[in-house]
Design a protein that fits this description.
Keywords: Membrane, Repeat, TPR repeat, Transmembrane, Transmembrane helix. It contains 27 helices and no strands. With 544 residues, the chain is mostly helical.
Length: 544
């Protein structure tokens, strides 16, 4: 017990040291929409709405991950929109996960190996994206609750609660329904019948909340791979699996975003990955087959964990990045478990090589944290070392647009469109650039093209702004009326409706729009607008 306390203290100190420089990084990418511009997390009175995904922002409405939203609201209630505290919570959860990893593996492997596994998981650069990116809070949460469920399998109530919380954190929590069942099948089969009942109740409860939240299951194709057929996506599996194995074993030149697709399978993108993957899997299977009975069961469990954790991210069901480091957050524990089992046969001391390994991993992660200082720095760094990639170019273009570097933004937007011509988001950025350059009709055409390709809410918002400022009120209102039916959770569209309806003296309609705007925003400005319209007082609203 005394050794365990020392190890846990070492995990905490190491984790804080490795991620300390990330605490001072800014909000990036979805952090802005999920926290800074998301009124749903700005008041604790909205916690029930967060659980049901009601009155949430348009960005959040396509996901059902209420636990992370609730935690954002709790942090915001105390610290407002200060990135430091969100980074601290995220790192603390990762440290807690590393502690749970240590405690779990200590039950099954040698103590020194359990310590090594937990420290590798804690410091490995493949986890840096998950920890440094505040919007990835759902990943640390689903693993946290999933790991907790493995400690309480003899208690059906707690097991069900933790599995449900894992699912409510992120859909990836579904893997722990299978992982926990595999564990009981291999080590305590008498609990399986009761456990299956727990899974049934947990699944039904999650399904119930998901249905009443009215969260859509399907999403628009955000990246090229989501437009491919099942067969085409299956041909990507060798390259995807190769990416995770390679990045875990050799974490070099990490990138935040990957949206590549394989246009033509060849030696480098297909044959080499197949051979490499078969070699890794062959070594693991061969090792498991040579182990004794108890070790074999443990080896099978870790192999199942690896297979399940990777399997749900191999694009069999299309997901919104081709690969991403945070997709490997759980699966790596299966791989680490197998490596740990192999190390039980090593006779020499692991202290020196383990210390060198942890030092190298830690320094690499600390260095990568500095790339995440702010969004502009990260994108400039990653774009410079990446292969042509639709998502990287599009995000870089959006960042350049925010810096008023319109000519450079236009170049990268057109590159993104050339890589993914069906991207409504790329045409939306193109329209935004044209609008800022004063090319109103080009902007209108780009926004219209964006809407024709994808039901992307921002395109409707941007065209709504353009029409509110430049078109006759009747035309603008006709468009905004249809747009708010399609995107009722867009506060911007309701705001534009208020402006147009007050211009047209449609007082009753303006009150209704103001009410919807206030329900979504919940701030002082929206309250004043709604209150003044209710009292038939003049409202002075200016578009920026």
């Amino acid at each position: 017990m005394r050794d365990s306390k020392k190890v846990i203290l070492a995990i905490i100190i190491t984790g804080l040291a490795v991620y300390f420089n990330s605490f001072f990084n800014a909000f990036v990418f979805d952090d802005i929409g999920l926290i800074v511009q998301n009124p749903s997390v700005h008041s604790l009175s909205r916690l029930p709405d967060l659980l049901l995904n009601h009155n949430s922002s348009q960005l959040v409405s396509h996901y059902y991950r209420p636990i992370s939203q609730i935690l954002y609201a709790l942090i915001y209630a105390v610290f407002k929109a200060v990135p430091f505290w969100y980074h601290l919570v995220q790192a603390s959860l990762h440290i807690a996960n590393a502690t749970l990893v240590y405690l779990f593996f200590k039950k099954h492997l040698r103590h020194d190996i359990a310590v090594l596994i937990s420290l590798v998981f804690l410091t490995h650069p493949i986890n840096q994206f998950t920890v440094a990116y505040i919007s990835s809070l759902h990943d640390t949460l689903y693993l946290f609750f999933g790991l907790l469920s493995l400690f309480v399998l003899s208690n059906p109530v707690l097991t069900g609660v933790f599995l449900l919380l894992s699912l409510l954190s992120k859909e990836s929590g579904i893997q722990f329904l299978v992982i926990s069942s595999s564990y009981l099948f291999l080590f305590n089969r008498k609990l399986l019948p009761r456990h299956f009942m727990v899974l049934l109740i947990t699944g039904f409860t999650y399904f119930f909340f998901r249905v009443i939240s009215q969260t859509p299951i399907s999403k628009d194709p955000l990246v090229p791979i989501m437009t491919l057929s099942l067969y085409q996506r299956l041909t990507h599996i060798p390259a995807i699996a190769f990416y995770y194995f390679k990045t875990f074993l050799f974490p070099h030149q990490l990138l935040a975003f990957h949206s590549w697709v394989i246009s033509a399978p060849g030696i480098r993108n297909y044959i080499v990955p197949v051979i490499f993957n078969l070699a890794i899997i062959g070594i693991l299977v061969k090792f498991i087959s040579t182990t004794r009975k108890l070790e074999k069961a443990l080896g099978l469990f870790f192999f199942y964990w690896l297979a399940i954790g990777m399997g749900i991210h191999l694009q069999i069901i299309p997901i919104d990045m081709t690969v991403s480091d945070h997709f490997f957050y759980s699966a790596q524990l299966g791989l680490l478990g197998l490596f740990g089992l192999m190390l039980t046969r090593v006779k020499f001391s692991l202290t020196i090589p383990a210390a060198i390994l942890i030092a190298v991993l830690s320094l690499t992660t600390v260095n990568r944290n500095s790339d995440w200082k702010n969004q502009s720095r990260l994108l400039a760094h990653d774009h410079a070392i990446s292969q042509p990639d639709y998502l990287m170019d599009l995000l870089y273009a959006g960042d350049l647009l925010g810096q008023n570097k319109y000519d450079q933004a236009l170049i990268h937007t057109k590159t993104a469109i050339s890589l993914y011509p069906q991207s409504g988001r790329a045409y939306n950025v193109l329209g935004s650039i044209y609008y800022q350059q004063g090319e109103t009709e080009k902007a209108r055409a780009a926004f219209t093209k964006s809407m024709a390709l994808n039901n992307y809410y921002a395109s409707y918002e941007n065209l709504g702004l353009l029409m509110t400022k430049h078109d006759p009120p009747a035309s603008a209102l006709a468009f905004l009326t249809q747009a708010t039916k399609k995107f009722p959770k867009s506060d911007k569209l309701w705001f534009y409706r208020i402006i147009v309806e007050t211009r047209m003296n449609y007082h009753d309609q303006a009150i209704k729009s103001a009410q919807n705007y206030y329900l979504l925003k919940g701030d002082e400005v929206s309250q004043v607008i709604y209150s003044r319209l209710l009292q038939s007082l003049p409202v002075n609203i200016e578009l920026k």
